[in-house]
């Protein structure tokens, strides 16, 4: 369905319309319906023409109904007879809801708590559904999380949810679907959206079970103290729509006890510093979100919440420790302490949480009670696990007891050392510990940060880790060589940062006995490798990095020699801060973006053209000229930035036949600039030697900005093109006249609409004629102390 055209069905012929609809409904273009079934389908389809949303939802419905009677029931449904003016929801949407299984109806109706345009994650919604008891877990069957995932995917397939265009992990409901959810909730859900003024109080029925409101400038809890005493509210859910925080800094003790039937309580974003002890009275509570609050501790009573499944403390950066008796919360399944960096260590009771699936961070403490071996019992861990402060761990046997190798549901593993160890014995112990912390081969992402050993363990880079797609190695400053990363057959993204003692990237890195290294690698980044000198290519000359699309090399000041030449799919190439490197650009036929900054120079790049190159950034301090053969390769460049080429004297290039944007900065020796007619935007800054600006032939130029070019004493009518619309001039110490006196200015940029002049203390007047001002819509002159006349 992802490849289905976006045009509406009503634009198509009868047959084409039906074929496209069948593709949506049944997920197949090869479907041939029984003639009677096809006739019913065409009639149903005709009822919802003109609404792409209705057509899409109907497709999702009929996809699950393949027999004649079900389709006929849809055609004969009384819901079609509802007058349109009496219903804000298309009848087809109501019909689609009525055909949902009962468990999906319940889940969908709960979504009426979500405001329109609210973007949500799948896990966020599943955890709320779980807390409301929508799924029952039986021994040996699927977990509640898996059942929730299935419900979410079912609703997504039926188009009740849609992926956002900006982020694949975020979802949204169409406004009409949101209205449908409110209709389906039948008064059990209440969403407060109006801003409350003064002492105005909202009214809420005692039948309401689920309550949400948009996080705005409400005065904290005061608005909700007067909930009816006899209501059995199960959900209290503030939802963030903007960045405003709550004004309250406390929670009244009298407020929580009157909500004793709550299953879901979110206080996300409130600015209070203390959680009342009365929270322990919420015996039915299964979901508690205290994320982004100012709390420093949790009350002891929270340990009595035996039914709690989800505890979210994300971003509570003042929280020092977890509840002492956290082991009593035996039903806890999700504990999120992401960005809670003030916690010193985990508590011994963590090992009792055998149902725990989410543990965002396990903090190893100096106290012997805080042992990583406590992870042994947490066999259900899923998703992401970070183990931090590993410098506190010196017991190899404890690392073995953690039994990471058997935690096959972990997708992402992060291991962090926060400080370096000076003792050689401790450094050796770190190697043994990391050896014992070998994860399952099912892991997809591995991050090692601050490792203090001198070499990597044997499992690191082993070919059995065929599921690893992302690898980050950071601040491992004592390691002198890299592991055999090339053996990781599925690796797509590799980031190496702060390996300050590695001198060579060569055969070991590729894997000496690996016939085809880096078969899946798409992104490769080297950064802050202070001693790296040589990049030795692998033996497989023509398949070195066959699928690499992005290559970044930053702050590697000693790197020299040749870079890989056989990278046929490279699209983005960026080098910055490699002072000893003469950059050689071989045949990169797919290159779209090129950035060369802070390097020694640019060598010859052969006889080919960089046909797809659209964006280029050059910053080479000692380059005197951009060689003709190099510039010729940039013929198709649309965006060019030249920065810090301090010895570059001229830029007279007729080769830029496609140039649209030119940005020149800090080229102190640049005297002359001559550009082509395709240029639309020009920016020149800090080019104090510039004396000649020949761009009058740039007939497409519309916007020009010229700053701090003090050798230009005037800008004549012959230097700027006729079609220029916006001109910004700033910080010229010696500029006296914008247009030289004695010459007619009627031809000076006759289309000029916006003129801004700032910080030109010597400027006396704009021109000898008033014609310059004829077409101007906006004129601004600031900090020009000698200025006396417009003409």
Which properties best describe this structure?
alpha/beta, Leucine-rich repeat, LRR (right-handed beta-alpha superhelix), 3-stranded antiparallel β-sheet, about 800 residues, 13 helices, globular, disordered N terminus
Provide a descriptive summary of the structure in words.
- The chain has 791 residues and is α/β, with parallel strands linked by helices.
- Among the domains are: 9-161, no CATH class; 187-195 and 203-343, Ribonuclease Inhibitor (Leucine-rich repeat, LRR (right-handed beta-alpha superhelix)).
- It has a 25-stranded parallel sheet, with helices on one face.
- Strand 25, helix 13 and strand 26 (639-643) form a beta-alpha-beta unit.
- Helix 2 (35-47) packs parallel to helix 4 (68-76) and helix 3 packs parallel to helix 5.
């Amino acid at each position: 369905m992802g490849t289905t055209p976006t045009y509406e069905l009503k634009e198509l012929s009868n047959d084409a319309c039906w074929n496209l609809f069948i593709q949506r409904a049944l997920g197949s273009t090869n479907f041939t319906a029984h003639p009677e079934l096809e006739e019913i389908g065409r009639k149903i389809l005709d009822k919802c023409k003109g609404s792409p949303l209705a057509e899409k939802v109907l497709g999702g419905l009929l996809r699950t109904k393949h027999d004649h009677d079900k389709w006929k029931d849809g055609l004969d449904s009384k819901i079609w007879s509802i007058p349109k003016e009496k219903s804000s929801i298309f009848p087809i949407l109501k019909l689609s809801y009525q055909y949902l299984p009962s468990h999906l109806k319940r889940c969908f109706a709960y979504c009426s708590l979500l405001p329109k345009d609210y973007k949500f994650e799948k896990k966020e919604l599943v955890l709320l559904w779980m807390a409301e008891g929508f799924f029952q877990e039986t021994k040996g069957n699927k977990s509640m999380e898996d059942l929730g995932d299935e419900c979410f995917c079912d609703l997504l397939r039926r188009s009740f949810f849609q992926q956002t265009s900006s982020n694949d992990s975020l979802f949204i409901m169409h406004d009409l679907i949101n209205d449908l959810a409110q209709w389906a909730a039948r008064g059990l859900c209440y969403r407060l959206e109006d801003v409350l003024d003064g002492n105005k109080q909202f009214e809420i029925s005692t039948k309401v079970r689920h309550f949400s409101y948009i996080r705005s400038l409400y005065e904290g809890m005061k608005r909700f103290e007067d909930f009816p005493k006899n209501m059995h509210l199960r959900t209290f859910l503030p939802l963030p729509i903007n960045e405003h925080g709550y004004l309250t800094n406390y929670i009244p003790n009298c407020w929580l006890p009157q909500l004793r039937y709550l299953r879901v309580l979110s206080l996300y974003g409130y600015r209070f510093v203390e959680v009342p002890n009365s929270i322990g009275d919420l015996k039915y509570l299964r979901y508690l979100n205290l994320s982004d609050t100012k709390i420093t501790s949790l009350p002891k009573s929270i340990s009595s919440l035996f039914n709690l499944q989800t505890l979210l403390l994300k971003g509570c950066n003042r929280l020092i420790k977890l509840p002492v008796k956290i082991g009593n919360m035996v039903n806890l399944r999700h504990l999120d302490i992401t960005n809670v960096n003030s916690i010193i260590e985990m508590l011994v009771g963590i090992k009792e949480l055998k149902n725990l699936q989410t543990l965002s961070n396990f903090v190893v403490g100096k106290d012997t009670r805080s042992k990583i071996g406590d992870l042994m019992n947490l066999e259900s861990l899923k998703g992401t696990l970070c183990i931090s402060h590993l410098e506190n761990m010196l017991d190899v046997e404890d690392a073995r007891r953690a039994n990471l190798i058997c935690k096959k549901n972990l997708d992402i593993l992060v291991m962090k050392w926060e400080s370096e160890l000076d003792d050689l014995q401790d450094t050796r112990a770190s190697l043994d510990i990391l050896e014992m912390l070998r994860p399952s081969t099912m892991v997809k992402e591995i991050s090692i940060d601050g490792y203090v050993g001198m070499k990597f363990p044997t499992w690191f880079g082993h070919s059995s880790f065929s599921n690893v797609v992302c690898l980050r190695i950071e601040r491992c400053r004592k390691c002198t060589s890299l592991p055999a990363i090339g053996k990781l057959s599925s690796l797509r993204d590799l980031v190496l940062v702060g390996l300050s003692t590695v001198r060579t990237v060569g055969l070991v890195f590729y894997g000496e006995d690996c016939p085809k290294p880096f078969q899946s690698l798409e992104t490769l980044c080297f950064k802050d490798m202070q001693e790296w000198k040589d990049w030795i290519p692998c033996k497989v000359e023509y398949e070195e990095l066959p699928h690499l699309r992005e290559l970044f090399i930053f702050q590697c000041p000693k790197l020299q020699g040749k870079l890989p030449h056989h990278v046929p799919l490279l699209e983005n190439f960026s080098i910055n801060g490699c002072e000893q490197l003469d950059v050689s650009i071989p045949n990169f036929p797919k290159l779209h973006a090129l950035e060369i900054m802070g390097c020694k120079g640019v060598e010859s790049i052969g006889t080919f053209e960089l046909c797809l190159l659209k964006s280029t950034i050059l910053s080479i301090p000692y380059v005197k000229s951009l060689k003709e053969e190099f510039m010729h390769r940039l013929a198709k460049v649309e965006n060019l930035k030249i920065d810090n080429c301090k010895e570059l004297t001229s830029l007279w290039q007729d080769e830029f036949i496609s140039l649209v944007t030119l940005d020149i900065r800090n080229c102190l020796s640049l005297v002359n600039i001559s550009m082509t007619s395709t240029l639309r935007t020009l920016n020149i800054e800090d080019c104090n030697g510039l004396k000649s600006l020949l761009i009058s032939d740039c007939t497409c130029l519309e916007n020009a900005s010229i700053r701090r070019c003090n050798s230009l004493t005037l800008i004549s009518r012959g230097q700027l093109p006729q079609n220029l619309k916006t001109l910004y001039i700033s910080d010229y110490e010696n500029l006296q006249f914008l247009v030289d006196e004695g010459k007619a200015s009627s031809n000076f940029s006759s289309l000029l609409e916006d003129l801004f002049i700032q910080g030109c203390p010597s400027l006396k007047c704009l021109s000898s004629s008033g014609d310059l001002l004829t077409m101007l819509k906006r004129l601004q002159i600031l900090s020009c102390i000698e200025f006396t006349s417009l003409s």
